[in-house]
Protein backbone atom coordinates (compact mmCIF):
# COMPACT_ATOMS: atom_id res chain seq x y z
CA UNK A 1 0.00 0.00 0.00
CA UNK A 2 1.47 3.32 -1.06
CA UNK A 3 1.22 5.97 1.64
CA UNK A 4 -0.83 8.93 0.47
CA UNK A 5 1.21 12.10 0.89
CA UNK A 6 -0.59 14.54 3.13
CA UNK A 7 0.24 18.17 3.51
CA UNK A 8 0.87 18.69 7.19
CA UNK A 9 -0.64 21.83 8.62
CA UNK A 10 2.77 22.72 9.98
CA UNK A 11 4.64 22.36 6.72
CA UNK A 12 2.08 23.38 4.12
CA UNK A 13 3.25 26.35 2.06
CA UNK A 14 -0.29 27.65 2.46
CA UNK A 15 0.02 27.66 6.22
CA UNK A 16 0.17 31.28 7.37
CA UNK A 17 2.51 32.43 10.13
CA UNK A 18 0.91 33.27 13.46
CA UNK A 19 2.59 34.45 16.63
CA UNK A 20 2.41 31.99 19.50
CA UNK A 21 0.81 33.30 22.68
CA UNK A 22 4.31 33.92 24.08
CA UNK A 23 5.07 36.14 21.14
CA UNK A 24 1.93 38.27 21.29
CA UNK A 25 2.66 41.74 22.64
CA UNK A 26 0.15 44.19 24.07
CA UNK A 27 1.63 47.04 22.03
CA UNK A 28 1.18 45.06 18.81
CA UNK A 29 -2.42 44.20 19.70
CA UNK A 30 -3.22 47.83 20.50
CA UNK A 31 -1.59 48.96 17.27
CA UNK A 32 -3.57 46.40 15.28
CA UNK A 33 -6.77 47.67 16.89
CA UNK A 34 -5.91 51.36 16.40
CA UNK A 35 -7.12 51.51 12.80
CA UNK A 36 -10.81 52.12 12.02
CA UNK A 37 -10.95 49.40 9.35
CA UNK A 38 -9.20 46.82 11.50
CA UNK A 39 -11.36 47.70 14.48
CA UNK A 40 -14.39 47.14 12.25
CA UNK A 41 -13.08 43.72 11.19
CA UNK A 42 -12.56 42.73 14.82
CA UNK A 43 -16.04 43.89 15.81
CA UNK A 44 -17.60 41.91 12.96
CA UNK A 45 -15.60 38.79 13.82
CA UNK A 46 -16.66 39.14 17.45
CA UNK A 47 -20.30 39.28 16.40
CA UNK A 48 -19.94 36.45 13.86
CA UNK A 49 -18.32 34.29 16.57
CA UNK A 50 -17.14 31.94 13.81
CA UNK A 51 -14.51 31.72 11.10
CA UNK A 52 -15.52 33.78 8.10
CA UNK A 53 -14.05 34.57 4.69
CA UNK A 54 -12.44 37.99 4.16
CA UNK A 55 -15.19 38.75 1.65
CA UNK A 56 -17.76 38.32 4.44
CA UNK A 57 -16.61 41.62 5.87
CA UNK A 58 -17.06 44.44 3.42
CA UNK A 59 -14.69 47.32 3.91
CA UNK A 60 -14.75 50.55 1.88
CA UNK A 61 -11.16 50.01 0.76
CA UNK A 62 -9.44 48.11 -2.04
CA UNK A 63 -8.95 44.36 -1.89
CA UNK A 64 -5.21 44.76 -1.37
CA UNK A 65 -5.75 47.17 1.52
CA UNK A 66 -8.23 44.72 3.02
CA UNK A 67 -5.62 41.96 2.70
CA UNK A 68 -3.08 44.21 4.40
CA UNK A 69 -5.41 44.91 7.34
CA UNK A 70 -6.10 41.20 7.86
CA UNK A 71 -2.37 40.50 7.77
CA UNK A 72 -1.65 43.16 10.42
CA UNK A 73 -4.33 41.62 12.63
CA UNK A 74 -2.91 38.13 12.11
CA UNK A 75 0.68 39.15 12.73
CA UNK A 76 -0.30 40.92 15.95
CA UNK A 77 -2.05 37.77 17.18
CA UNK A 78 -5.56 39.21 17.04
CA UNK A 79 -6.97 36.88 14.39
CA UNK A 80 -6.20 33.43 13.02
CA UNK A 81 -6.24 32.94 9.25
CA UNK A 82 -6.52 29.43 7.83
CA UNK A 83 -6.94 28.11 4.34
CA UNK A 84 -9.89 25.81 3.72
CA UNK A 85 -9.57 24.76 0.12
CA UNK A 86 -9.35 28.01 -1.82
CA UNK A 87 -10.93 30.15 0.88
CA UNK A 88 -9.02 31.98 3.58
CA UNK A 89 -11.02 31.92 6.78
CA UNK A 90 -10.62 34.38 9.63
CA UNK A 91 -11.42 34.00 13.27
CA UNK A 92 -10.80 36.12 16.33
CA UNK A 93 -8.20 34.65 18.73
CA UNK A 94 -10.51 35.51 21.59
CA UNK A 95 -9.43 32.68 23.89
CA UNK A 96 -5.75 33.51 23.45
CA UNK A 97 -6.30 37.23 23.97
CA UNK A 98 -8.58 36.71 26.97
CA UNK A 99 -5.99 34.43 28.53
CA UNK A 100 -3.14 36.84 27.90
CA UNK A 101 -4.91 40.12 28.68
CA UNK A 102 -8.11 39.46 30.62
CA UNK A 103 -10.83 41.96 29.88
CA UNK A 104 -8.89 43.88 27.24
CA UNK A 105 -10.72 42.73 24.12
CA UNK A 106 -14.11 43.15 25.79
CA UNK A 107 -13.18 46.66 26.92
CA UNK A 108 -12.08 47.62 23.39
CA UNK A 109 -15.21 46.12 21.82
CA UNK A 110 -17.42 47.91 24.36
CA UNK A 111 -15.57 51.18 23.74
CA UNK A 112 -16.01 50.77 19.99
CA UNK A 113 -19.72 50.18 20.52
CA UNK A 114 -20.06 53.28 22.70
CA UNK A 115 -18.17 55.40 20.18
CA UNK A 116 -20.25 54.13 17.24
CA UNK A 117 -23.46 54.99 19.06
CA UNK A 118 -22.10 58.40 20.04
CA UNK A 119 -20.97 59.27 16.52
CA UNK A 120 -24.19 57.98 14.96
CA UNK A 121 -26.22 60.12 17.35
CA UNK A 122 -24.22 63.31 16.89
CA UNK B 1 -5.31 99.89 42.63
CA UNK B 2 -3.76 98.72 39.39
CA UNK B 3 -5.11 95.39 38.19
CA UNK B 4 -2.39 92.81 37.95
CA UNK B 5 -2.35 91.38 34.43
CA UNK B 6 -2.89 87.65 34.51
CA UNK B 7 -2.32 85.27 31.69
CA UNK B 8 -5.60 83.51 31.11
CA UNK B 9 -5.31 79.77 30.68
CA UNK B 10 -7.50 80.00 27.61
CA UNK B 11 -5.56 82.67 25.80
CA UNK B 12 -1.99 82.09 26.87
CA UNK B 13 0.33 81.37 23.95
CA UNK B 14 1.77 78.67 26.19
CA UNK B 15 -1.56 76.93 26.39
CA UNK B 16 -1.23 73.61 24.58
CA UNK B 17 -3.97 72.25 22.32
CA UNK B 18 -6.01 69.37 23.72
CA UNK B 19 -8.87 67.52 22.08
CA UNK B 20 -12.21 68.02 23.80
CA UNK B 21 -13.95 64.83 24.94
CA UNK B 22 -16.10 64.97 21.79
CA UNK B 23 -12.97 64.94 19.70
CA UNK B 24 -11.26 62.00 21.39
CA UNK B 25 -11.38 58.87 19.24
CA UNK B 26 -10.87 55.31 20.38
CA UNK B 27 -8.53 54.58 17.47
CA UNK B 28 -6.35 57.54 18.42
CA UNK B 29 -6.22 56.46 22.06
CA UNK B 30 -5.28 52.90 21.09
CA UNK B 31 -2.62 54.19 18.73
CA UNK B 32 -1.19 56.43 21.44
CA UNK B 33 -1.04 53.44 23.80
CA UNK B 34 0.48 51.10 21.20
CA UNK B 35 4.05 52.27 21.71
CA UNK B 36 6.19 50.78 24.52
CA UNK B 37 7.54 54.18 25.61
CA UNK B 38 4.12 55.82 25.62
CA UNK B 39 2.59 52.88 27.45
CA UNK B 40 5.32 53.28 30.06
CA UNK B 41 4.53 56.98 30.45
CA UNK B 42 0.84 56.20 30.94
CA UNK B 43 1.59 53.50 33.50
CA UNK B 44 3.84 55.85 35.47
CA UNK B 45 1.28 58.65 35.35
CA UNK B 46 -1.39 56.23 36.57
CA UNK B 47 0.79 55.25 39.51
CA UNK B 48 1.81 58.85 40.25
CA UNK B 49 -1.88 59.86 40.24
CA UNK B 50 -0.76 63.48 40.01
CA UNK B 51 0.63 65.95 37.52
CA UNK B 52 4.33 65.40 37.02
CA UNK B 53 7.08 66.98 34.93
CA UNK B 54 8.27 65.14 31.82
CA UNK B 55 11.65 64.71 33.50
CA UNK B 56 9.94 62.74 36.30
CA UNK B 57 9.54 59.87 33.87
CA UNK B 58 12.86 58.66 32.58
CA UNK B 59 12.72 57.04 29.17
CA UNK B 60 15.71 55.45 27.41
CA UNK B 61 15.27 57.77 24.42
CA UNK B 62 16.41 61.27 23.49
CA UNK B 63 14.72 64.34 24.93
CA UNK B 64 13.16 65.17 21.56
CA UNK B 65 11.73 61.66 21.22
CA UNK B 66 10.36 61.95 24.75
CA UNK B 67 8.73 65.26 23.81
CA UNK B 68 7.25 63.60 20.72
CA UNK B 69 5.75 60.76 22.75
CA UNK B 70 4.16 63.17 25.23
CA UNK B 71 2.72 65.18 22.33
CA UNK B 72 1.17 62.07 20.75
CA UNK B 73 -0.42 61.20 24.09
CA UNK B 74 -1.74 64.76 24.50
CA UNK B 75 -3.12 65.00 20.97
CA UNK B 76 -4.91 61.66 21.37
CA UNK B 77 -6.55 62.90 24.57
CA UNK B 78 -4.73 60.51 26.88
CA UNK B 79 -2.82 63.12 28.90
CA UNK B 80 -3.18 66.79 29.75
CA UNK B 81 -0.08 68.99 29.55
CA UNK B 82 -0.07 72.32 31.30
CA UNK B 83 2.59 74.90 31.90
CA UNK B 84 3.27 75.91 35.48
CA UNK B 85 5.89 78.60 35.28
CA UNK B 86 8.70 77.08 33.26
CA UNK B 87 7.69 73.48 33.91
CA UNK B 88 5.38 71.46 31.69
CA UNK B 89 3.28 69.20 33.86
CA UNK B 90 1.59 66.03 32.66
CA UNK B 91 -1.44 64.26 34.01
CA UNK B 92 -3.51 61.34 32.82
CA UNK B 93 -7.01 62.32 31.59
CA UNK B 94 -8.39 59.39 33.53
CA UNK B 95 -11.80 60.91 34.26
CA UNK B 96 -12.33 61.84 30.62
CA UNK B 97 -11.21 58.44 29.33
CA UNK B 98 -13.25 56.55 31.93
CA UNK B 99 -16.33 58.56 31.01
CA UNK B 100 -15.82 58.01 27.28
CA UNK B 101 -14.67 54.40 27.32
CA UNK B 102 -15.55 52.77 30.65
CA UNK B 103 -13.04 50.15 31.70
CA UNK B 104 -10.70 50.64 28.76
CA UNK B 105 -7.82 52.38 30.51
CA UNK B 106 -7.98 49.98 33.45
CA UNK B 107 -7.95 46.99 31.08
CA UNK B 108 -4.91 48.35 29.23
CA UNK B 109 -3.07 49.14 32.47
CA UNK B 110 -3.85 45.66 33.82
CA UNK B 111 -2.71 44.06 30.56
CA UNK B 112 0.54 46.05 30.67
CA UNK B 113 1.09 44.87 34.23
CA UNK B 114 0.46 41.24 33.30
CA UNK B 115 2.81 41.49 30.33
CA UNK B 116 5.58 43.15 32.36
CA UNK B 117 5.40 40.38 34.95
CA UNK B 118 5.37 37.73 32.24
CA UNK B 119 8.37 39.18 30.40
CA UNK B 120 10.31 39.74 33.61
CA UNK B 121 9.74 36.14 34.61
CA UNK B 122 10.66 34.62 31.28
Automatic annotation (TrEMBL), chains A, B:
* Keyword Transcription appears in the UniProt entry: yes
What residue stretch is flagged as signal peptide? none
Q: Where is the HTH arsR-type domain?
A: 18-112
The yes or no answer to whether the keyword Transcription is present is yes
Recite the UniProt keywords alphabetically: DNA-binding, Transcription, Transcription regulation
GO MF entry, a single one = DNA binding
Note the PANTHER family from the entry. TRANSCRIPTIONAL REGULATOR, ARSR FAMILY (PTHR33154), TRANSCRIPTIONAL REGULATORY PROTEIN (PTHR33154:SF12)
Q: What is the protein name for this chain?
A: Transcriptional regulator
Q: What is the organism field in this record? A: Streptomyces roseolilacinus
Which classification does the entry list for the species?
Bacteria, Bacillati, Actinomycetota, Actinomycetes, Kitasatosporales
